[in-house]
Known about the structure:
This protein has a domain at 7-90: 3-Layer(aba) Sandwich (Rossmann fold), CATH 3.40.50. Helix content is 25%, strand content 31%. It is built from four helices and six strands, in the order βαββααβββα. It has a six-stranded mixed beta sheet with strand order 2-3-4-1-5-6.
Amino acid sequence: MIYLHGDLGAGKTTLVRGVLRALGFAGRVKSPTYTLVEHYEAGGLHLRHFDLYRFRDAEEWESSGFRDEFDRCNICLVEWPQQAAGLLPAADLTLDLQILPHGRALTFHANSDTGQECLNDL
């Protein structure tokens, strides 16, 4: 479970696109702003890219079946996780993206042993 934090235009979707490309995914990678989730398979992994910017209520969560996506078999990358506070599982990693005057800054935070293992492997 990976939370992606950052202002609009900070590069969250671009980062997900880069991760998918690095894993060998050659298809189109689009922002799930309106669909809320996009499914990908790459490098033998099942990835789910969520963009919860437009997410507004818990009823939508239940009716969408999102809970089933967080089964510990999928790698979930979640933009705007604060929009579903209290509904999402805890993040293993939190990535904070900031827009700087000349570029971007990315900060990684491990929130679990699994997250720390991922950081150690970088």
